[in-house]
């Protein structure tokens, strides 16, 4: 341990660490405080290297350096801090044997893959308009490809996926060994038929899935688009589009590649696009065309200019873009900076007008593809557990074979005998395990899809239904998953009076009355375009208490003006009109033809509400907006400035000038936390905001301030100056705006409700009671996310919410994590940016703290971040995760989770197609997990262990038989008996376990606490497995020794005797394990018994011992004697009766939790 060189006296300025200290890699800063008499407190910092043995790092015991520079000096060192414990794990022989070999092999394979498929480095590019041939390098094809294999890799790929499982690889080796005469035990078909069947079923299933994927890709890639060339418009398919092409996209058409927006048919030079498949937000986004190209007289002029776009290299961030547009053939050259407003990303949809853009990124380099992870083959936890158990069985098999050879005394070719014994005992690991489980999974999928209580549910990945019964974390999207994304205006509060949905007609009458007075007094008689000069602001006049009517009028007018909403009208232009004609087509301004578009559905809800009370927004462009009064009069307002909403400011403002009076007014609305300090003193705002929030309403505070001409001119000069500054532009601009935001007149408080999906609250409560932790990951704003978390009861009323403050560096993250650590039992709300900083420096600590929270809300999450959070939970907790979403932005998260559920909603089918399970409503997830998840897991666990028992019992009998016959490696049962034993004689009853259920569906939904037991994995564990091993050894021993003891005189019939008893024992054991009988189970039992009895007549050649029977085959006269029947019955009873007694006693004295409920 090295003593550091930092000693700091309490109360004095902190010293920076010296270079020598900061050069230690992966170190932890610890402190000792030394108190000396009559001396100030000294703190010694020292470093200790991380090791696995260190106790979990206590954030409070990791003092931070007080100066921020200390962090920025050597952030690379701190980058390794949280991972240090993980990286410094012990490396030894034990580690290698336990699983290190697998990690090393995986690393080597990854390295080879990376070498073979070295990715081309992504670079910035210069794209010439309409000239793809001028591109400096080759860019990727624009085709979509979701297929896993191609024509050549299908067979090798599927075989690899099958034989990477130990079980299948083991059977392949055993089957291949039968080609060697020295090792041949039985008939070839005994080994190759089951293996071939398994592979054939798997290949057919994979082929069907692959064909479906191919058809979906083909449909997407063959969509036709108009491409602009020198010769005019030509049709091209989506997959043939190249970087540099000028593509025309019509209204409601999908944008095929990432483009820069050059031109639109809309007169305003802007258009709306729907981005729901990219970021999950259903609000329309306003995009602005490049000014230079929008001003060109005609569409064909795009080829007459010499211009190019410089674009940054492809990136993941869908919310930012940097580039430049340059026109070289003008004098002087025209340069325009490009930002996110000038982009049209692939997979978004044009919502208004026709747009023309130049393609800058295609295929793999588009934002949507970069944010989508490639689908991986998901393997269920139950499959992994069974794989581990088969390895344990293999070990037992090898030990048994070695014991046999050792008892022979290692004489002769003992090595060959060893291998023969291994093949002889190969039934200890049954190949039918894979077949039974796969068929069981298909049956569960069929049951899920046929469940009338969850109509429309589709199982797309049939290999993991058991995962539904093992989930600990549920990660859900918000928009469209928990909510319907439909906003409804619920409350208007004016301080002294509050209006709800049932009293809106009063507001309507006040507005009608107010505008009637205005028109009578001749307010609207001033000539348009000649504003009256404004005198000093009204605030200077003595305050007079306004009437309720005038206050309502002011509030409604403010709500109708302060927003970023644009009314959109369907054009009456006929198809086939030219661009300019279509742009200038008359628009129908009638109410039924108008829709509102904005970047937030809250805004639309407010404007729709003002329309319902009589004040309608009828038109808006970049410089003005028009309102229609109840009397039909049109009022025009000029937009002087707009201050858009940002997550930092939490408010938006607008300065407008009324056309008739020339009055200038500054309107502002925002979150209560931001507005409380801006508005004039009042005693009701905070209380009412709290009341509305508790009802789950999203609140907005609306205020205004009248400005004189001089005040506005002074502000405008300072504002423009701030916008032109090069350094600290954002800070200077916000400072100028803040100079206006003082002593605003509080007008009203609005409450809007985002309607939740049906039964979201009871469903979330059900999941919480089942022990499932719910995390909400959304791209929405922090306030919105917090509001929905409360209204949906994701966060219960008694719980506190800790809002993680925005952090940008390690120091801030550390302090904020410390603050969060002191909170107990509170929900966490964190933004995507802060999350990224925390994960960069304190990944382990952050996940550890977040996992202790009853609920977590992550807002402003990108699609990649959503997937990253899923990976983190899988990596740090080893628990099963489930992701549920409904938009294209949720696909990465759904594919990353152990179990992905997609909802078919307003945002399209992209999430539903990428998911493992597709449902139509969020409330269906309750039944899907509690009922089908439970049944699938319990049934598969019982089925898997029973099939293993079936193999172990026959291997025990073989071992007893071989040990009696001088350890000869001769099979007890020949050819068809072995195939028949695992198929027609026992398959139906064993497979009927997939119909068994321990709890009725109603009970599972009524007591979701039962689900908690499933996550512990007690139905299939080494403990239950060992119980089955003991049962197999007991029964196998009883049957074999019983046959030898009771039939000494008729020893030649030992095969028939023991095999008959074995079949009866298996059928009784199935009956012992069934908890709820179904008529098909009874049918399966009798059908199997009937098949066995009927086949006895035809199988006499198989009932000899070894290759040579001892001169006597099956004697029908012998098996019909009473002696044979009572002796077989006695053996069967002795093998099964004790187990029935034990089961009865266990149920009586130690019943499982579910049996208490059902009784």
From TrEMBL:
CDD domains for this protein: P-type_ATPase_APLT_Neo1-like
Residue ranges constituting the P-type ATPase N-terminal domain according to the UniProt record: 133-192
Top-level enzyme category: translocase
Occurrences of domain P-type ATPase C-terminal (ranges): 913-1151
One Pfam family cited in the UniProt record for this chain: PhoLip_ATPase_N
Domain P-type ATPase A, residue spans: 233-367
Transmembrane segments: 189-208, 392-412, 418-437, 947-967, 973-995, 1025-1045, 1051-1072, 1079-1103, 1123-1142
Localisation per UniProt entry: Golgi apparatus, trans-Golgi network membrane; Membrane
Positions of the UniProt region annotated as Disordered: 518-544
EC number(s) from the headed UniProt entry: 7.6.2.1
Cofactor(s) needed: Mg(2+)
Chain sites annotated for binding Mg(2+): 477, 479, 886, 890
Active site: 477 (4-aspartylphosphate intermediate)
Positions of ATP binding: 477-479, 603, 645, 669, 698, 778-780, 860, 866, 889-890
Domain of life: Eukaryota
PROSITE patterns attached to this UniProt entry: ATPASE_E1_E2 (PS00154)
Keywords: ATP-binding, Golgi apparatus, Lipid transport, Magnesium, Membrane, Metal-binding, Nucleotide-binding, Translocase, Transmembrane, Transmembrane helix, Transport
Gene3D superfamilies (alphabetical): Calcium-transporting ATPase, cytoplasmic domain N (3.40.1110.10), Calcium-transporting ATPase, cytoplasmic transduction domain A (2.70.150.10), HAD superfamily/HAD-like (3.40.50.1000)
Gene Ontology MF terms: ATP binding; ATP hydrolysis activity; ATPase-coupled intramembrane lipid transporter activity; magnesium ion binding
Recorded catalytic activity of this chain's protein: ATP + H2O + phospholipidSide 1 = ADP + phosphate + phospholipidSide 2
Swiss-Prot/TrEMBL GO biological process terms: endocytosis; phospholipid translocation; retrograde vesicle-mediated transport, Golgi to endoplasmic reticulum
Keyword Repeat applies: no
Membrane topology category: Multi-pass membrane protein
Family assignment from sequence similarity: Belongs to the cation transport ATPase (P-type) (TC 3.A.3) family. Type IV subfamily.
Record's protein name: Phospholipid-transporting ATPase
């Amino acid at each position: 341990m090295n003593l550091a060189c930092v000693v700091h006296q309490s109360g004095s300025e902190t010293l920076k660490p010296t270079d020598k200290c900061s050069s230690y890699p992966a170190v932890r800063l610890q402190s000792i405080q030394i108190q000396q008499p009559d001396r100030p407190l000294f703190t010694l910092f020292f470093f200790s290297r991380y090791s696995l043995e260190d106790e979990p790092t206590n954030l409070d015991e990791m003092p931070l350096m007080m100066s921020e520079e200390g962090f920025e000096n050597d952030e690379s060192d701190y980058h390794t801090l949280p991972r240090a414990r993980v990286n410094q794990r012990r490396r030894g022989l034990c580690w290698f044997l336990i699983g290190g070999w697998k990690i090393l092999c995986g690393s080597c394979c990854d390295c080879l893959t990376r070498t073979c498929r070295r990715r081309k480095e992504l670079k910035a590019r210069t794209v010439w308009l309409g000239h793809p041939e001028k591109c400096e390098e080759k860019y990727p094809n624009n085709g979509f490809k979701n297929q896993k294999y191609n024509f050549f890799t299908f067979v090798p790929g599927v075989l690899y996926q099958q034989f990477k499982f130990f079980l299948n690889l083991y059977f392949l080796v055993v089957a291949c060994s039968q080609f060697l005469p020295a090792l041949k035990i039985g008939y070839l078909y005994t080994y190759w038929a089951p293996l071939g069947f398994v592979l054939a079923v798997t290949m057919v299933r994979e082929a069907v899935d692959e064909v479906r994927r191919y058809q979906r890709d083909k449909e997407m890639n063959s969509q036709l688009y108009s491409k602009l060339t020198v010769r005019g418009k030509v049709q091209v398919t989506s997959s043939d589009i190249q970087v540099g092409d000028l593509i025309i996209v019509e209204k409601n058409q999908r944008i095929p590649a990432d483009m820069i927006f050059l031109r639109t048919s809309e007169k305003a030079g802007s258009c709306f696009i729907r981005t729901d498949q990219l970021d999950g937000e259903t609000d329309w986004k306003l995009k602005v065309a490049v000014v230079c190209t929008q001003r060109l007289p005609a569409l064909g002029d795009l080829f007459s200019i010499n211009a190019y776009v410089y674009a940054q290299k492809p990136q993941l961030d869908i919310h930012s873009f940097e580039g430049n547009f340059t026109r070289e053939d003008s004098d002087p050259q025209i340069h325009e900076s490009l930002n996110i407003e000038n982009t049209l990303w692939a997979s978004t949809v044009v919502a208004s007008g026709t747009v023309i853009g130049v393609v800058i990124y295609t295929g793999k380099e588009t934002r949507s593809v970069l944010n989508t992870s490639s689908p991986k083959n998901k393997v269920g936890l139950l499959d992994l557990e069974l794989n581990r158990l088969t390895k344990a069985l293999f070990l037992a098999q090898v030990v048994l074979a070695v014991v046999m050879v050792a008892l022979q005394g290692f004489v002769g070719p003992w090595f060959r005998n060893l291998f023969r014994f291994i093949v002889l005992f190969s039934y200890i690991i049954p190949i039918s395990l894979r077949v039974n489980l796969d068929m069981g999974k298909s049956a569960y999928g069929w049951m899920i899809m046929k469940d009338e209580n969850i109509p429309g549910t589709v199982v797309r990945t049939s290999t993991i239904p058991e995962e539904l019964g093992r989930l600990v974390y549920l990660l859900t999207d918000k928009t469209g998953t928990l909510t319907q994304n439909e906003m409804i205006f619920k409350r208007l509060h004016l301080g002294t009076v509050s209006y709800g949905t049932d009293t809106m007609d009063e507001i309507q009458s006040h507005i009608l009355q107010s505008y009637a007075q205005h028109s009578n007094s001749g307010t609207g008689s001033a000539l348009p375009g000649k504003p009256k000069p404004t005198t000093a602001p009204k605030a200077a006049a003595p305050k007079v208490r306004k009437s309720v009517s005038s206050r309502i009028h002011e509030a409604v007018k403010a709500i109708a003006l302060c927003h970023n909403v644009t009314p959109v009208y369907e054009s009456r232009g006929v198809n086939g009109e030219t661009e300019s004609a279509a742009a200038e087509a008359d628009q129908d301004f009638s109410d039924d033809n108008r829709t509102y578009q904005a970047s937030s559905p809250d805004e639309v809800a407010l404007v729709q509400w003002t329309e319902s009370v009589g004040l309608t927004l009828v038109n808006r462009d970049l410089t003005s907006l028009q309102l229609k009064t109840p009397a039909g009069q049109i009022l025009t307002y000029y937009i002087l400035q707009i201050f858009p909403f940002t997550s930092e400011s939490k408010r938006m403002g607008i300065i407008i000038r009324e056309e008739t009076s020339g009055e200038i007014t500054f309107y502002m609305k925002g979150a209560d936390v931001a507005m409380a300090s801006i508005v004039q003193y009042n005693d009701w705002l905070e209380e009412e905001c709290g009341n509305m929030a508790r009802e789950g309403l999203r609140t907005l505070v609306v205020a205004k301030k009248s400005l004189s001409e001089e005040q506005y001119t002074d502000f405008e000069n300072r504002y423009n100056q701030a916008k032109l500054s090069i350094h600290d532009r954002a800070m200077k601009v916000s400072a100028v705006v803040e100079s206006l935001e003082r002593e605003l007149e509080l007008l009203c408080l609005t409450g809007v409700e985002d309607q939740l999906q049906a039964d979201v609250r009871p469903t979330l409560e059900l999941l919480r009671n089942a022990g499932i932790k719910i995390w909400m990951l959304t791209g929405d704003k922090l306030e919105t996310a917090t509001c929905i978390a409360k209204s949906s009861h994701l966060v219960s009323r008694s719980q506190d919410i800790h809002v993680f403050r925005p952090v940008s560096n390690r120091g801030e993250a550390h302090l904020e994590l410390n603050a969060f650590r002191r909170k107990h039992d509170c929900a966490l709300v964190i933004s995507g940016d802060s999350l990224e900083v925390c994960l960069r420096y304190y990944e382990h600590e952050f996940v550890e703290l977040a996992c202790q929270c009853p609920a977590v809300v992550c807002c402003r999450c990108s699609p990649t971040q959503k997937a990253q959070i899923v990976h983190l939970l899988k990596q740090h907790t080893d628990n099963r995760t489930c992701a549920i979403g409904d938009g294209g932005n949720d696909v990465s998260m759904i594919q990353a989770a152990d179990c992905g559920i997609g909802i078919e909603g307003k945002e399209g089918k992209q999430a539903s197609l990428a998911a493992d399970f597709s449902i139509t409503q969020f409330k269906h997830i309750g039944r899907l997990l509690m009922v089908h998840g439970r049944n699938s897991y319990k049934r598969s666990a019982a089925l898997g262990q029973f099939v293993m028992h079936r193999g172990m019992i026959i291997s025990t009998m073989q071992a007893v038989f071989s040990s009696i016959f001088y350890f000869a490696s001769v099979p007890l049962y020949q050819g068809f008996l072995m195939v028949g034993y695992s198929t027609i004689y026992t398959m139906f009853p064993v497979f009927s376990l997939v119909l068994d259920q321990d709890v009725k569906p109603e009970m599972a939904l009524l007591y979701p606490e039962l689900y908690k037991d499933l996550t512990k994995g007690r139905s299939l564990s080494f403990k239950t497995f060992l119980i089955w091993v003991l049962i197999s050894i007991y029964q196998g021993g009883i049957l074999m020794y019983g046959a030898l003891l009771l039939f000494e005189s008729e020893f030649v019939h030992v095969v028939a005797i023991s095999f008959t008893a074995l079949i009866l024992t298996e059928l009784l054991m199935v009956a012992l394990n069934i908890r709820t009988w179904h008529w098909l189970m009874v049918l399966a039992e009798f059908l199997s018994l009937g098949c066995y009895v009927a086949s006895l007549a035809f199988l006499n050649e198989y009932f000899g011992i070894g290759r040579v029977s001892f001169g006597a085959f099956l004697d029908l006269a012998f098996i019909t004697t009473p002696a044979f029947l009572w002796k077989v019955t006695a053996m069967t009873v002795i093998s099964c009766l004790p187990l029935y007694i034990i089961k009865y006693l266990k149920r009586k004295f130690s019943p499982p939790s579910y049996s208490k409920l059902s009784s």
